[in-house]
Amino acid sequence: MKAPCTVALDRTPLYDLHIASGAKMVPFAGYHMPVQFAAGVLKEHLHTRRQAGLFDVSHMGQLRLIGVNAAAALEALVPGDIQGLVPGAMRYTQFTGPSGGILDDLIVTKAQDHLYLVVNADRKAADLAHLRANLPRDIAVEPMEDRALIALQGPAAARVLERHAGGAAGLKFMSSAAMPVMGFACIVSRCGYTGEDGFEISVAGQDAPALAAALLDEAEVAPIGLGARDSLRLEAGLCLYGHDIDTTTSPVEAGLAWSIGKRRRAEGGFPGDAVIRRQIAQGVTRRRVGLRPDGRAPAREGTPIADKDGRNAGAVTSGGFAPTLGAPISMGYVRAELASIDTPLDLMVRGKAMAARVAAMPFTPARYHRG
Amino acid sequence: MSETKFTEDHEWIRVDGDIATIGITDYAQEQLGDIVFVELPQTGDTIDQGGDVAIVESVKAASDIHAPVSGTVETVNDALVDEPGKANEDPEGDGWFFTVTLSDPAELDDLMDADTYKAFVAKL
């Protein structure tokens, strides 16, 4: 049923643990990754919403920028306010291109003496080249290739992690601290990609299997694959790079202008600033929206969207079944005049018009720990 | 006296006289993962062997179901439309898709019996 894999794939430090846990492995971004475990995508999704799920996200790129003016230097490549970060604070931002498109999205954490970046797996080589080509020579770009990244997500995540890392539960959403977890030196960040409270734990690859196994031993925690990771982030209204955002979409069209601080809007100084500042001031011609089909058929990526006069209105960029809602959901881009909540539209699924409405995102309430 | 046959596309077809009940096999549902949507043909539809006749969507992807035989659709499993998960839980029982009146019973001769299908799946 599947073509044999001809490309050599990398393994994360948790590969053996996944196999032992009964994972179904698939190639993803150059890695062998678990797409689901024995429970299956629906149960894994609901378990994360109800208790806690453990995700291997070691395929993502982790790197450090070191240098006295690293924050100012990075601001030349991203529209986020990096200089305004206090130590331990994190920010979501994007690498933008000269016409305002998105080269990647990333999280930047201000550590005491460096910046810690987490970028998408598919983009890490390109991002590294981009940083090395464009940052001044006195900023060192150090990939953290020996590090694993483990996400623990769900309402029980803080309770569970506190048992192994005293003080972890005291972190607020989008803040980070270096702390021992089970005695292993880790960077613990209160963030995630599910809409739930939770953490991402950066740990040395050699320590990762023991740490993950100990967390999985907790009654509340189950292993979760990429399948549920995708349905969780879709319900949370979060963008997937290469699908909902890419070099052809700007942060403003994507509804990510909230991530561009006041000072950066006023001053510019990032790639594509002319386009992005004009879009903030004057509006955009298309916007990313949430979509709720009336029926049960999921409208997946690439599904054309039509207005009620039958004219092309845009296209779906992500779509599937939302286990928490028991109904299909999608996100996509539509002409700006069609972007208000409850606007009726048609999703052209297999050539047939399926009635849908523009819906608020997130589709399920975010439960971040804002403290 | 009924007999169950299987296709290489992982459908089963249980024949009782000139009426056949059709669904997807346990192997198929296992490969598809959690099924969240099923679109069935309508009663009275004429179907041709090999043609697209139904759609199954799992959490992963949409798949076409091909008609294992030609005929006229007699009944469809409306309960499956309301609870697509039945195709995971009981694929060869409550998770049946539809029944047809066979127009060419000789088509059944090309399909696999249970042992042949079992051997076929074992090699995948």
SSE topology sketch:
The complex is a heterodimer of chains A (371) and B (124).
Chain A: E1 10-11, H1 15-20, E2 24-28, E3 31-36, H2 41-50, E4 52-56, E5 61-66, H3 70-75, E6 90-96, E7 102-110, E8 115-119, H4 124-134, E9 140-143, E10 147-153, H5 157-164, E11 176-181, E12 184-189, E13 198-204, H6 208-216, E14 221-223, H7 226-235, H8 262-267, H9 273-282, E15 286-293, E16 304-306, E17 312-322, E18 327-335, E19 344-349, E20 352-359
Parallel strand pairs in A: 1-3, 4-14
Antiparallel strand pairs in A: 2-3, 4-10, 5-8, 5-9, 6-7, 7-8, 10-13, 11-12, 12-13, 15-18, 15-20, 16-17, 16-19, 17-18, 19-20
Chain B: E1 3-6, E2 11-16, E3 19-24, H1 26-32, E4 35-39, E5 46-47, E6 52-58, E7 62-66, E8 71-76, H2 78-82, H3 86-89, E9 98-102, H4 114-122
Antiparallel strand pairs in B: 1-2, 2-3, 3-9, 4-6, 5-8, 6-7, 8-9
Write out key terms for the chains shown:
heterodimer; A: 371 residues; alpha+beta; Elongation Factor Tu (Ef-tu), domain 3; six-stranded mixed beta sheet; 9 helices; 20% helix; B: 124 residues; 9 strands
Query: By CATH's scheme, which homologous superfamily of the largest domain in chain A applies?
Result: Probable tRNA modification gtpase trme, domain 1
Nearest-integer average pLDDT of chain A: 96
Q: How big a fraction of the residues of chain A is strand?
A: 25-35%
Total number of domains of chain B? 1
Would you tell me which CATH topology of chain B applies? OB fold (Dihydrolipoamide Acetyltransferase, E2P)
Structural class of the secondary structure composition of chain B?
A: alpha+beta
